[in-house]
Amino acid sequence: SGSFTDDYSIHKTNDDATYCKRAAVQLGYYDDPFINRFVQASSSTNDMPIRRDPEISRGYWARVKAFRTLIDQFLQKAGPSCQILNFGAGFDTLYWRLKEEGAKFRRYVDVDFSSVTAKKIRMIRKPGKPDLVSIIANDSSTELYESGHTDLHGGDYHVVGADLRQARELHEKLVAAEVDFSLPTVIVCECVLIYMAEEQSASLLKYLADSFPTVCFINYEQVNLSDTFGAVMQRNLNTRGINLAGMAACQSLESQKKRFLENGWTHAEDWRMDIVYSQHLPKNEVERIEKIEPLDEKELLTQLLEHYCMVVAAKDSAGLGLDAIKF
Ligand code: SAM
What is the pTM of this model? Predict the structure, then answer.
């Protein structure tokens, strides 16, 4: 179901990600001065910590930290004329976090269903601190330009509504966001592809490999869903009405990698998140976050992390060394 519709239960998954990230930020797992601007004002809990189990917060910390590790490597290799596309971005604050830290890039584009981008634009424009609009406008002489309430263009920041399963619509929106297909580009995709049927994500990956000569894709999502714990994860999502249309590609690390290599990408490497957590994230930071909340059953965290993975895929015509982006 839902292959051509704007599936309500799927864009609701963004609310969950936003709440979990906010909970982790409030407890001090990591810094994100912007996340509060994207929590629905309707929630009466606005100033109260939202509880999430400690293994969930540790998992979110690892996810955000792992993305930044890889994105920072891309920025370093690609230089200031690069582009960042965040697919299924939801209310992710990456643009503002990068700007705050002085990261240099030519253009940044958030893409999600138009119902989600319309909400994001309202939240961006809502007066409050920190002021999101002034951070966008800072670098640009142009006014913010809004189109159809679902797309916003301003300076180096764009947010556009598009269904990632519809290549033509996506392409038109990327063109409207002034994406330059010849520039080195990273596509960030955090818990998104699993909601699309395998052939739909395959054709998205093929479209990207065909359109960008120098491109890197960082994918994070569920993996190993065919074991017992994976079956429980699936059932939990199913009971919330969420259809994991893309489960087939999430059966194993091998299938995660294959989807890139079979669709025009020349390099793909994968890591299970339990390995990223225990071997590749800074030990002193792991120690710090593990002190925030006690976790009696360590096994719970390991099991959870075994069911998520990161894949870095690349096509590197300009020879920037994008294949060397790794943990
Ligand atoms: N990437 C964000 C994060 O990690 O905080 C949000 C993750 S949320 C689990 C999944 C997001 O993907 C939702 O915002 C949803 O609307 C978006 N999404 C799923 N399928 C999509 C599609 N076919 N086209 C556009 N967006 C999609």
Answer: 0.95
